[in-house]
Specification:
mainly alpha, 2% strand
Length: 491
Amino acid sequence: MLPIAIILTLFAAAALCLIFKADPAVKLIAVAAHAAAFVLSLVMMHAAAAEPISVILGAEPWNFYVLVTPLDAFMAALFTGVGLFIVWASAGMIGHDIDAPRLPAYYALMCALVATLCGVVVFENFVNVFLLVEASSFAAAGLVIIKNKPENLKAGLKYLSLSILGSSFILMGIIILYFITDALSITGIYASLSHNLAGNEDSVRNALIFITVGTALKSALFPLHIWLPDAHSTAPAPSSAILSGLVLKAYIFLYIKILHKAIGADILLNDHVLSTILGAVMITGATAMIAGSVMALLQTDIKRLIAYSSVSQIGYIFMGIGMGTQLGLFAAMFHILAHAVTKPVLFLSAGSIVEQTHNRDIEKMSGLWARMRVTMALFTTGALSMIGIPLFMGFNSKWVFAAGIIDSQHYWLLGVLAFSALLNGSYYLPIVFRAIFGKFNTEDELADQSAPERPLKELAPVICLASLIIIFALFSGPVTSYILIGISSIW
């Protein structure tokens, strides 16, 4: 019952935030709930490594079905762990973005969102999963809109509309699979297809096309990324961190489960059309790696730059999935971890810069290091990781991508990988160099602002996340082994 306990803990915390309403109380409730859920997730990881955790109530197809394999447990721990640091960080900075009366709703949405993300990865029945996918879309949109400014309302509604459209595509694919298998659970669909694929090949292909397009929309894969820059750049910094770092990953992981647990690698890779779809995913991911970085290069707003960087990083994950190899899938899963840890550091650091200087323009950040050393050190750590500098987690990620490319024999992707890393450096390093070596313009309108560093106790959660970037780079063995165990259980 561990997975149910995790989800209920977070939903209960969401309800308590709306009941108590007092500022210190709701923050404490949200942080405590995430801490408890994270501990339970770690216990679940240990248990799932020995034997999958299963809870079944009712009979197919309309049953309540939870099945937790090592990869599912890993994702739940990722959501609750990173969510814990983001909620903790929000306690010191969210008051600058939203009014006090909205704080209970904000923390309720944060708790509910992480609960739904955990549900998406641990539930096995598509009815359960789809309801949680839709709930997560509304909660995520609420975290954008809650800032209560016209641009946030516009961005939030745009995100919600396109997310629901993506869900509709996924639903069409699920319905097709249901009609040919008479099953709504992931394992049930695979069992049926394993024996009754003959004559249903076209239906399976059509289902996969619908699901692929829907996932691309919901996870902002280029060129279906059009909602992401506005949503991530206008939202409060903690909202941006959780949207980019966690929410997108739940939908991508669901896609991985559909590919490898519902359809299965044996069917997926031996059918010419299905393998062609997978190849298209790989090419689109490679294109997104470059396109997202090119768009980031054109930005002058620091949060929009980081948002477009996410478009590029999502491309990495889809490229790994599309390779159609175990090593490619491992690279994708490791990058999910790397991006989930690194991108919140960037968004939270950028949020601190904007909050303290009242400036979002990158060109006006010269000399910022002298005034905000810790914040800029944190931003630099995240930037170097995204570029792929050794001793930072992003380097490990790019290394395994290179190994996956060689293993899949798509050697041209090595050029894409190298060029993407170059582009990443082209838009992150100038920010760092300008902050360290640039001179503060005394004629600038910001010159009268001292831009003091935020207190260390408020930066502590960001420091912890930034430390993980280096820790996971230097001691990645246990995480690597666990991910490989998980992949072997579904391949």
